[in-house]
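Hi W.,

Here's what went into the run:
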Amino acid sequence: MRRIVIGLALVTAACAPRPDARSGAGEDNPFGLRGRVLSDPLAKPEFVLTDTGHRPFDFRRQTDGYLTLLFFGYTYCPDVCPVHMANLGAVIAQLTPSVADRIRVVFITTDPARDTPERLRQWLDNFDRRFIGLTGDTAQIAAAERAVGLPGADIGPRDSTGAYEVGHSAVVVAFTPDNRAHVLYPFGIRQADWANDLPKLLTIAWPGS
Amino acid sequence: MARLLIVPLVAGLVVAAAACDRAPAGGADGRPGAVTITETYAAEPVTDESAVVYLTIRNGTQVTDTLVGAATPIAAVAGLHRQMTMGAMTHMESAGSVPVPAGGDLRLEPGGLHLMLERLSRRPQAGDTIDVTLTFRRAGPIRVRVPVIAYADVSDRAHPPQ
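Here's what came out:
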């Protein structure tokens, strides 16, 4: 049996048509964001992984001050990963360059055995050549996931053909320019929601920041 | 620290449960007394290995039927995969056969149950259509033509604006 461990957000995706308005735009969310606003923002963690050019990437330092959209996934992922990346690529392509240049999309593989830097680069280029792909060894990646508060990757057993499935969380974590994560985007979020939120995320003055 | 994420995700589950009740009472083309397939689409793959297909099966009969297999000329393997929730985590496994309740729907949709085409003989592109034959224990084989769309169009297809 092939198994995959995925964040609970995937269950939401199975049938929730719009996780945005009902959960995000109420009185608890004065900014009109369609993502899920965290009551306790998360500090941007420090970790160093390897980018698709085989260079070390210091996550905290090299995304400092950017709107940083962080996602853990893998290139063999059937829908959650490519849908998130395709939606972000399509929306960012519509932004003015001065806005788009203030955004970093960071995709960290949870399947480093198969997602070589070259494969990651090729896969990400389907969506946006500026997207940053990171890899490392399993322990480094699991540590990065824990640092963000996500469950660590779980790699399932190989089946008779040698194939296996890898786990990941289904949410995009948005670190705003204050280097804190205030908003989560579960699977099911649409391009219209990103188009609404991305400019706001660059300009909101968060309390306490 | 994990608590930060788990709380909103559990809240999402409640939203999901409510949303499931919104499924329409009848498929767009659902004939009474038959098993019909609607809302078919596939995502244009961005790698050579596999493609994913979604659709809705409506069982208009009085008896539960079972989806026992699938095939397509463009892939050596066509298998159902589904997720299983165990505690706070979701596990996915190959789903050999899946029941379709009498008078009910079985939905294959992003993030949930899906048909995975593996070992592709060609890589379908947006605008193509794929022939897929679904085989049911009672209704037998049903052939559908599945339009291929870009991953960028999947969210609006799966979750149309209200």
